[in-house]
């Protein structure tokens, strides 16, 4: 029994230690730049200031074209917004609700329990306006090979000229991370927002901040899970040590 517990403990520790620090890049993908994220590794956590900066970019730019179907306003309390602030933010948005007693849908003021509303009435309207359907970004960092590194590289990956063997259709843009033509034009530029905390507003910083925010949206309980995992590992290690000491004490009384 003791041996099984020891093997399980060391095996779990080995899996954590062996986890790659850098996402695996899919074969045939474009140029993906690795970024040192604060939330990487067993002990990594989200940078709350960075999440606030990413929130600034999301509300000022990304939310105009993209949705966050799985993100509720109340989640903002996890990154330091007060309950009253969340209520005020939610109230700025109109939510289509219903049906009412007559079977009709109606509009109302948003509340913290509401999920982020789409900027479009339906997918057809979104496709017509943009030329292609803008993806929902709720889990974008988990739905792409390369994760946050891919999203960061994509945002900064708009080159003036595509490779010689590629032709970019009219109304499209070449992206070196996706290694293909895309409908979204370049979105990241210097001082696109003025940070309230004084952080320098470079394109690279903007891309890092919005990517970190989107990864938090996709993994809102990441810090909590890591904390639970660390406590569990410490418990197993202490338990293993106690059981080993108990075994030594018991067998020390037995003549060999």
TrEMBL record:
<feature type="binding site" description="covalent">
    <location>
        <position position="184"/>
    </location>
    <ligand>
        <name>heme c</name>
    </ligand>
</feature>
<keyword id="KW-0812">Transmembrane</keyword>
<dbReference type="InterPro" id="IPR036909">
    <property type="entry name" value="Cyt_c-like_dom_sf"/>
</dbReference>
<feature type="transmembrane region" description="Helical">
    <location>
        <begin position="227"/>
        <end position="246"/>
    </location>
</feature>
<dbReference type="GO" id="GO:0020037">
    <property type="term" value="F:heme binding"/>
</dbReference>
<feature type="binding site" description="covalent">
    <location>
        <position position="66"/>
    </location>
    <ligand>
        <name>heme c</name>
    </ligand>
</feature>
<protein>
    <recommendedName>
        <fullName>Cytochrome c1</fullName>
    </recommendedName>
</protein>
<dbReference type="Pfam" id="PF02167">
    <property type="entry name" value="Cytochrom_C1"/>
</dbReference>
<dbReference type="GO" id="GO:0016020">
    <property type="term" value="C:membrane"/>
</dbReference>
<dbReference type="InterPro" id="IPR002326">
    <property type="entry name" value="Cyt_c1"/>
</dbReference>
<feature type="signal peptide">
    <location>
        <begin position="1"/>
        <end position="26"/>
    </location>
</feature>
<keyword id="KW-0349">Heme</keyword>
<feature type="binding site" description="covalent">
    <location>
        <position position="62"/>
    </location>
    <ligand>
        <name>heme c</name>
    </ligand>
</feature>
<dbReference type="GO" id="GO:0009055">
    <property type="term" value="F:electron transfer activity"/>
</dbReference>
<keyword id="KW-0472">Membrane</keyword>
<keyword id="KW-1133">Transmembrane helix</keyword>
<feature type="binding site" description="covalent">
    <location>
        <position position="65"/>
    </location>
    <ligand>
        <name>heme c</name>
    </ligand>
</feature>
<keyword id="KW-0732">Signal</keyword>
<keyword id="KW-0479">Metal-binding</keyword>
<dbReference type="GO" id="GO:0046872">
    <property type="term" value="F:metal ion binding"/>
</dbReference>
<keyword id="KW-0408">Iron</keyword>
